Amino acid sequence: MAKRLILVRHAKAEYGAIQDAERSLTKTGQRQALQLGLELAQRLDRLDLMIISPAKRAQQTAEPLIGSLLPRSYCQEDAIYSGGPQQWLDLIHLIDESVTSVMIVGHEPTVSALAYGLDGESALARQISFGVSTATAVILEVVGSWKELASGGAIVTDVVSRGASDMWI
Question: What is the number of domains present in the chain?
Fold first, then answer.
């Protein structure tokens, strides 16, 4: 059975917080997160697990996603904030094989780098290789097991964005 991995970049966040991890969503970001959740609820039939960065903006993005998608389980994981593509992949490798759909709510440039690294061949993967805007979900179909997921082990099947062109905020 094919598995689904959804990588989400948080919605638009404010500038100027003393600590980066404490940046909140702007009003625009709150609307983006709500719209993204509603759109994904129409496209995804189920969500087993959501893994969320501890950064405030990611937590605030996840709230309406949880409300719209009703994941069976969700958790916070420090490596989603502090790690890069390899650390995210290390977490994915630990997911139980009975889980068929996983969403990670995190940050750029890791969202686009991991998606491109897992696919790299499709037109959609090439399109996102330079980054994705805020409030964007990259949906990948995973061909094999979570434990063995590596380069070429997934295909970007869709990109859903409710963000602006502020690629690195």
Answer: 1
